[in-house]
Amino acid sequence: MTVDALTDVAGVRVGHATRSGDGWLTGTTVVLAPEGGAVAAVDVRGGGPGTKETDALDPRNVVQRVDAVVLTGGSAYGLDAASGVMAWLEEQGRGVRVGVEPTHVVPVVPAACVFDLGRGGDFKARPDAATGRAAVEAAAISGPGVRVREGGVGAGTGAAVGPMKGGVGTASIVLESGITVAALVVANAAGSVVDPETGVLYGELFQGRVTYPEAHVHEAARRRLAETAAKHTPPPLNTTLAVVATDAELTKAQAQKLAGTAHDGIARAVRPVHLLHDGDTVFALATGARPLDTENPLALNDILAAGADVVTRAIVRAVRAAESVDGPGGAWPSHEELYGRR
Fold first, then answer.
1. Per-residue confidence band for 222, with pLDDT thresholds at 50, 70 and 90
2. Within 13 Å and on the Cβ side, how many CA atoms surround 13?
3. For the ranges 124-128, 182-186, 261-265, 271-275, which has the lowest average pLDDT?
4. Secondary structure of 127-187 in the HEC alphabet?
5. 318, 316, 323: which is closest to 338 by C-alpha?
6. DSSP class of residue 275?
7. Phi, psi torsion values for 103, nearest 5 degrees
8. 3-class DSSP state for residue 30?
9. Which distant-in-sequence residues (6+ apart) come within 8 Å of 119 by Cβ?
10. Around Cβ 143, how many Cβ atoms within 10 Å?
């Protein structure tokens, strides 16, 4: 049975560490690969990324597998969360073997951050190594194939999409080949996820399952969003992050292609996208449990298309799962508050 989440890829686990209240509105999300790691790649399209260890994922470089990916709030400060994940992995003996002893490992932990500084009221309230450790420990103790919490949790705690509340969302699909493709997204975009003329989520327009809000509801939502946007001080330094995972057996180059085409899923759900003040970054993980059809040179295409699709659905789910925030750092109404649950 699938749960429509990143954890539908066997062996992949997700953990959140969330801090809110007393000036905090931030957190960290860790995607933990199965024992032995996963082939990994990355594609960065935003003009203002905050990342760590992404060069190691270049297909030309020596690292073949990673054990975890960190998505975190706190802008570049929050990348310190990866240190806590590294320490935990070292204790488990997981990482790149660099010595004669099993404990002689260096965990390679790619990470990317979203901008949420000050959204809880305290500019210095941001994730650190302890936050990262809490998130990876939460992932480690979670059961296989469990549901993943969505909305304002983990790295999505302080996320915003334009003047509206963002968050974490996830989705998955099983292809006819039996291969699973799934995504987890932190929706924190400078652009909008809502069509200004109709109030429909862009991602749902793409999916073809559209329920148009009544005109008076949309007008009230537009007024509220305009009022909220006027209270926030520019610039809107934002980022959308994603991890796309599959149980297919991919090379690093194929995984990099998957990370690249998955950005199409962001572009369908957020407009505009990949701006200079965005840091849009997509990681790809391949566990290798299911071989590709080596007789078909285009066998990867179905996985590429599915990767973009699940990213779009994950963004929609992130926005729909978000809850309104109104605190000392600002106010971000949720989609449900503005348009109701549909």
1. confident
2. 17
3. 271-275
4. CCHHHHHHHHHHHHHCCCCCCCCCECCHHHCCCEECCEECEEEEEEEECCCCCEEEEEEEE
5. 323
6. -
7. -85, -5
8. strand
9. 25, 26, 158, 160, 325, 329, 330, 332
10. 8
